[in-house]
Amino acid sequence: MTLCVLFWSVNFVLGRFVKDDITPMELAFFRWFFVFLMVSPILIIRHEKIIHSLKQNFTILTVLAILGITTFNTLLYYGLTFTTSTNALIINSTVPILVLVLSFFILKQKIKFYQTTGIILSTLGVIFLILKADIANILTLEFNQGDILIIITSLSWALYSVLLKYKPKDLNDFEYFSTTVAIGLIVLLPFYLYQGYSFQQELEVLQNNYPVFLYVSIFASISSYYLWHYGIEKIGASKTAQFTHLMPIFGIILASIFLKESLHSYHLLGASLIAFGIYLSLFYKNTQKYF
């Protein structure tokens, strides 16, 4: 799971880094287009099984594809054109809180005392980072358009993670992922075509930025999505989501290197609170008290 969130942290920084060379729609569309090409053998070989499952589970597969493939990634890249990668990563670390709340209402999942304590500590670490260790900053705290979009993407991903509980049991992880990629790309296609890009323009974008598209397709998509799904199956959505609190740590370091965003002592202190909160949520099990 640590490797998964590291790949995604790079994706956040990369989305900000290429904002002047690749439009958000281009980055989102070609990311999933190349993933689709990579998983197409699975779609072809297992087409009868996938079509049968799609007929039986069309609604949930479509909802999951829209949340996890279309909405999350596209709005993320649009958000990164207006806000910094550091801001985006910090806001995104609210996902565990959203997952816990949604799991409580949708899955009727009980909340243990130590989980709540860990989430509170991690959240305090995030707030510490946002306020830059100065409570006076709360008076000037503002959310721009990019921040709002990132909040929407966080909610989208949290809901996706919770609803994975209802994904078809007859599809394995690779079949499921391939199916949602195909559906998500189909949903995204009209929005991409609406932009009116020329063939020559897109050819130049692909030629000049192919390493970016390869990274977001292989590491930020195929590898990370598989690891995320594996984590949810093994330890549940709430605990898996706690690992997103590591993203600000990775992201701030990467942003300071590649985007020249400053790294301060409050980043390190906030990261320490986040890390301790993850420890409590995932590994500390001395009490069985529930809320």
From TrEMBL:
Q: Where in the cell is it found?
A: Cell membrane
One Pfam family matching this protein: EamA
Record flagged with keyword Isomerase: no
UniProt keyword Cytoplasm present:
no
Q: Which UniProt keywords apply?
A: Cell membrane, Membrane, Transmembrane, Transmembrane helix
How does the protein's chain sit in the membrane according to the entry? Answer: Multi-pass membrane protein
- The EamA domain covers which part of the protein? 3-130, 146-282
Q: Which GO terms describe its cellular component?
A: plasma membrane
Transmembrane residue ranges = 29-46, 58-80, 86-107, 119-140, 146-164, 176-197, 209-228, 240-259, 265-284
Q: What is this protein called?
A: DMT family transporter
The organism is Sulfurimonas marina
